[in-house]
Amino acid sequence: MNGKLLTLPIGIQSFGKLRQGNYLYVDKTEKLRELVMGSPWCFLSRP
């Protein structure tokens, strides 16, 4: 990375387009696992 801020991928749902367009991507897989494994009740919704 060159210190330049990456663009937020608003409206982009294709991982390939994220990578090709040099958009910001944050992998939250580990946080999701912690949430699901740490609580007996979990509701996930997507806007």
Offer a concise description of the structure.
The protein is mainly α.
Low-confidence stretches: none
Secondary-structure element sequence?
HH
The amount of beta strand, in percent, is: under 5%
Report the mean per-residue pLDDT as an integer: 83
Main sheet record? none
Structural class from helices and strands?
A: mainly alpha
The strand count comes to: 0
What is the C-alpha radius of gyration, as a whole number of Å?
Answer: 14 Å
Cα separation of the termini: 30 Å
Q: What is the approximate shape?
A: elongated
Q: Report the total helices.
A: 2
Count structural domains. 1
The percent range for helix content is 25-40%
Task: Give structural notes.
- It is built from two helices and no strands.
- It starts with 14 loop residues before the first helix and ends in a 10-residue tail after the last helix.
- 32% of the residues lie in helices and 0% in strands.
- The chain has one domain.
- 0% of the residues are buried.
- The longest helix is centred in the C-terminal third of the chain and has 9 residues.
- By secondary structure, it is mainly alpha-helical.
Keywords:
single chain, 47 residues, mainly alpha, 2 helices, elongated
What order do the helices and strands come in, and which of them pair?
Layout: H1 15-20, H2 29-37
